Amino acid sequence: MASHRRPKQSSRARVTVLTATAAAAVALTSQAAQADPKESKKEVKAKVDALYEEAEHATEKYNGVKEKQDKLEKQVDTLQDKVARGQDELNELRNGLGSMATAQYRTGGIDPSVQLMLSSDPDTYLDKASALEQLSTKQADALGKIADQQRSLKQQREEASTKLAELADTREALGDKKKEIQGKLSKAQALLNTLTAKERAALAAAEAARASRANDRANLGNDASASQRASAAFSAAKSKIGSPYVWGGSGPNSFDCSGLTSWAYRQAGVSIPRTSESQAQIGTRLGQSQLAPGDLVFFYGDLHHVGFYAGNGQILHAPKPGASVRYESINNMPFQFGVRV
After folding, report:
1. What is the dihedral sign for C-alpha 225, 227, 228, 229?
2. Catalytic residue of the set 4, 57, 304, 317
3. How far apart are CA 339 and CA 277, in angstroms?
4. Fewer beta carbons under 10 A from the terminal one: N or C of the chain?
5. Which CATH class name applies to 41-192?
6. How far apart are CA 291 and CA 29, in angstroms?
7. Is CATH 3.90.1640.30 what the domain over 223-340 is classified as, yes or no?
8. Residue 304 annotated among the catalytic residues of the structure
9. 262 neighbors 274 (Cβ within 8 angstroms)
10. Domain span(s) for CATH 3.90.1720.10 in the chain
11. Can you give the pLDDT of all 341 residues of the chain as single tens digits?
C-alpha cells in the first residue's frame, strides 16, 4: 500500500526558503524606509518654527484671558467686601430699630388716654406723647433705611454671584489655552527629538549665532524717539537684550512679545494693555515710514506679535520660544502697522 506522507524537505531547500523570506523582509523594510524617510534638519526646523508661531498666537490669547481673570478677581473681591460691609450696616440698623422698639414698649405700654387720666401733671404727659411721636418717626425712617439696605445687599450679592460664575468660566478657558500652548510646545520638542544630539546642538548654535550677529551688527541710525516716554520705554527694553522668551512672561527676567512691551512702558510710567491685540488699539496708528524708536510695531494679520521699532529698519522684540530678546530686521515678518503711545 502506497504511503501518503509528504517527502521530507531537504536542508538545502529549507535554506532557500529562509533566504527568500529574509530577502522579502529586507525589501519591505527598505520600501517602508523610502515611504517614510527621516526628515532633514531643515524640514524639522521649519515645522518647529511653525509650531512656535502657533504657540505664540495661543499665548496672546492666553494673556488676554489672564488679564480678564485678574480684573474679575479684583471685581469679585470688591463686591464681596461691599456685601460684608453692607451686612454689617444692615445688622446695625436692625439693632437700632430693636432698641427703639424696646424704648417705645417701656414708655408706651399703657394707652395714652389712660396715662393722661393717671397723670397728676399734664405737662409730663405731653412730654411723653411728644417723645413717642418722635420715636415712631425714627422707627419709620429706620424701617425705610433697612428696606433700602436689603435691596442694595440683594443686588450686590446677585452681581457678585454673576461675577463668580464668569470667573469660573474664565479660569476654565485659561486652563484650556494653557493646555493648547503646552501641547504645541511638546510637539515641537518631539520633532526636535527626532534629530540627533549633534543636529540639535547645531540648531541651537545657529540660533545663538543669529541673535549675536543681529545684536552686534544692529545699525539703528540716529533717529530720535517721538517722546520722552517712548525713549524711556525703549531704553528699558534694550536693558533686557538676551533675556529668554517664556510664554506668559511679563518680566523682569523673561518675556513673551507683549510682555516685553507692556513691561518696558510700565518702567517709563505708562500703563498699556497686556496683549498685542489690545496694544494695537491704543495711541496713534503709523505707517512704516513714520516710525521712530520706541514706537510699537505689529506683525501678522491677526496682530499676534508686537515689538519696538529700534530705528533704521530694525526692531527689538522677544521673538519666540527658544530665543531671547534681540534686534531683527523689520522685514523678517509681515509688518502691519505701528502705534505711537
Report:
1. negative
2. 317
3. 12
4. N
5. mainly alpha
6. 58
7. no
8. no
9. yes
10. 223-340
11. 444 444 454 444 444 434 444 444 444 444 433 444 677 888 988 999 899 989 998 999 999 999 999 999 999 898 888 888 888 877 887 777 666 566 555 555 544 554 544 445 555 555 555 555 555 676 677 677 777 778 888 888 888 889 889 989 999 989 999 999 999 999 998 998 898 889 888 888 887 777 777 776 678 888 899 999 999 999 999 999 999 999 999 999 999 999 999 999 999 999 999 999 999 999 999 999 999 999 999 999 999 999 999 999 999 999 998 899 999 999 999 999 999 99
> Where in the chain are all domains bearing CATH 1.10.287.1700?
41-192
Cβ proximity of 326 and 265 under 8 Å: no
Q: Is 257 a catalytic residue?
A: yes
Please say whether the beta carbons of 330 and 288 come within 8 A: yes
Nearest in space to 186 (alpha carbons), one of 55, 62, 57, 319? 55
For the full predicted model, state whether its pTM sits above 0.85.
no
> 3-class SS at 315?
strand
Is 4 designated active site?
no
For 33, what's the count of Cα atoms within 13 Å in the CB-facing half-sphere?
6
Query: Can you read off the three cell numbers belonging to residue 189?
Result: 520638542
Are the C-beta atoms of residues 142 and 94 closer than 8 Å to each other?
Answer: no
Counting Cα atoms < 13 Å in the Cβ hemisphere of 84 gives 6
Cα–Cα dist 265/235, whole Å: 10
What is the C-alpha to C-alpha distance for residues 17 and 223, in angstroms, rounded to an integer?
A: 81
Q: Where are the beta strands (DSSP E) in the chain?
A: 284-286, 296-299, 305-311, 314-317, 326-329, 335-340
